[in-house]
Every structure is written in structure tokens, then in C-alpha cells.
Specification:
The protein is of the alpha/beta class. It is 29% helix and 29% strand.
């Protein structure tokens, strides 16, 4: 799938990834719950920390709306554990070292870093309903404002 076909109304691609608790998380195992699946570039960087902390601080509000939050990056489980502990994160971080899930959701993009082209994760969020369908596909979101904008969208 790519970003043109993966949009609101699409069935969210199923996956299983290791999480920061050393367990496997399978998307289809969360059927019956609403899911906020957010992809971020790298643990412990300023933008990703700001976004993760905003999700941490809003988690109870998202839970009241019936959502589970999952963060996904290409970092290792060990890196996720360090990031989680340093920031007191209260939701699972999933490790996609092989970029399999990133590929399914079409979030790997060519980017410019320090004047050089590189491949990286485009900060993106997919909101998934209880039946496993995408209700919102938000791409290229801004780290500092995304969580508040998402909460406003979902609570309207």
C-alpha cells in the first residue's frame, strides 16, 4: 500500500511488532478499541520528545474518548525503553527496525537533513476505529502542535 491508497475508509494494515515492554503488539488484537497509531522519526530528539510528551500529558483525555495510543519508530526496543523511562511515557512504543509497518503505512519518505538526502519517517498519525478502518490519515504533522490539533479533531 502507499499513501495514495491508505486513507480514511481503508482497512488499516494489520501488523505485529515488539513493544517497549518486551511483548508483541498486534493491531488486530486491539479490535473493538479505537487506536491512535502515530509514526515518529527518532527517539529522544527534540521534536519527537515534544510530541511524545504531549501524548503522555493528553493520554487520559484520549482514553476518555475511547482511544489507545501507540507510537512507532525504527528505533530498537532498548532505545524505546530509555526514551520511555526518561520521559515517563505511559503508552506503548513499537519497534519497526525492518521498516515493515512503516512501508505498509507509506510513511518512509526522502528528506533533507543537513543538506543531504536521506530516507526517514514522515511524522504521521492514523486514527483507526473499532472495526480496524482508518477514520483519519494525517501526514506531515507538526511535532509541537499535532497532539492538541488531534485532540480537538477527535473531541469535536
Amino acid at each position: 500500500m502507499n499513501d495514495e491508497t491508505l486513507a480514511a475508509g481503508s482497512l488499516a494494515p494489520d501488523f505485529t511488532l515488539p513493544n517497549d515492554s518486551g511483548e508483541e503488539t498486534t493491531l488486530s488484537g486491539l479490535r473493538g478499541q479505537r487506536v491512535i497509531l502515530y509514526f515518529y522519526p527518532k527517539d529522544s530528539t527534540s521534536g519527537c520528545t515534544a510530541e511524545a510528551v504531549a501524548f503522555r500529558d493528553r493520554l487520559e483525555d484520549f482514553k476518555r474518548l475511547g482511544y489507545v495510543v501507540l507510537g512507532v519508530s525504527r528505533d530498537s526496543v532498548k532505545s524505546h525503553c530509555t526514551f520511555r523511562d526518561r520521559q515517563s511515557l505511559n503508552f506503548p512504543l513499537l519497534s519497526d527496525k525492518e521498516e515493515t509497518v512503516c512501508g505498509l503505512y507509506g510513511v518512509i519518505k526522502e528528506k533533507m537533513m543537513c543538506g543531504r538526502k536521506c530516507r526517514g519517517i514522515e511524522r504521521s498519525t492514523f486514527v483507526i476505529d473499532e472495526e480496524g478502518r482508518i477514520t483519519h490519515a494525517l501526514r506531515g504533522v507538526k511535532a509541537k502542535t499535532h497532539v492538541e490539533e488531534l485532540y480537538a479533531l477527535l473531541s469535536a
